[in-house]
């Protein structure tokens, strides 16, 4: 950078910095410098050195953002940023967001600092609980009609019931509504506590009477649609398929995991891939069961096409009768693609929901719902519908997500040139934020503090 400036340009810039030293003492100046120091610290140090240390030291900036409270509970600074953002919006333009909820495990550790002991269960109410925290429950909002996200609360927990979670969600919705933020969806994963939570809120994910939404606690005329993280649902479906070995359709055709194994064995033997990414890692998924891409690459049209080619063209006997498996892979792949659209200009199944794609999207999701509803599995005694077994979570999740995605589109985007990117309502944003934190409880607090300071700039 320095080598690209002439001596006169460098002097002019130095004079400009010297004249504006007072700007650095203002709140706006603090915010700008915090953002640059967090995102590009090496570049910041370089510029600071080249201009004779006219800019504040990085430790000074750290002291500035340390004043952003990151204690457990609802973060005041986040709500202040949201309030300012809503106030700056043009009249008649809503701030529409998706609410994310997730938990991560933290190291069980007690620390003393700032005059108090840290490490106990803490909901930010000031009450002391002598139970050591094992998890951090994080809440975040992601804008649907803009491009920003911000965490606004976290709680240190050990165990928590569905009713307690529901109370936290209600309080979050009420606070966000008071600041002018309209929340249209709630996204979480599939533990039993979360099913109890959505029931407590007023939704019903039972397949026999599914109602994947609940009334907004501040305005019953508004619906908050429930979404179960599709990446998590895809992994659960892969786990159920591989564990069962054989699934059966309503008309008695079998969907066999064995065909996937045969395809991998064939490709390993020949040293060639039939246009797919299938590897031994996909077969031995238990060693890496948290990796979403292993499930997504397995439920893919490329794997389905390879199976069909081996049966129809190569006539290999070990692939005879794989048509139902091929159809199943195509169906799940299509449903996952339309539920995970990211690009407003996407094509094919990865296109967002809009007037020109709505009918096709509805047909794909309806086909997936019909397929999943009719899947049967052997429980050791007889064939029963998979949605009536302990492996029902992925079935409920896919069906609820399909209905909620279409309902959100109908509520918000039913007008020309208003594409609905389904991915913004899912937890990839929150997962990315959580990956920046660390599993140590005290370090999680510090990372939360720094990341919130950065996200405030993103919202503003």
UniProtKB/TrEMBL annotation:
Residues 71-202 form the Transposable element P transposase-like RNase H domain. Residues 231-352 form the Transposable element P transposase-like GTP-binding insertion domain. It holds the Pfam family TNP-like_GBD. InterPro entries: THAP9-like_HTH, TNP-like_GBD, TNP-like_RNaseH_N. It comes from the Eukaryota. Residues 43-64 form the THAP9-like helix-turn-helix domain. This is THAP domain containing 9.
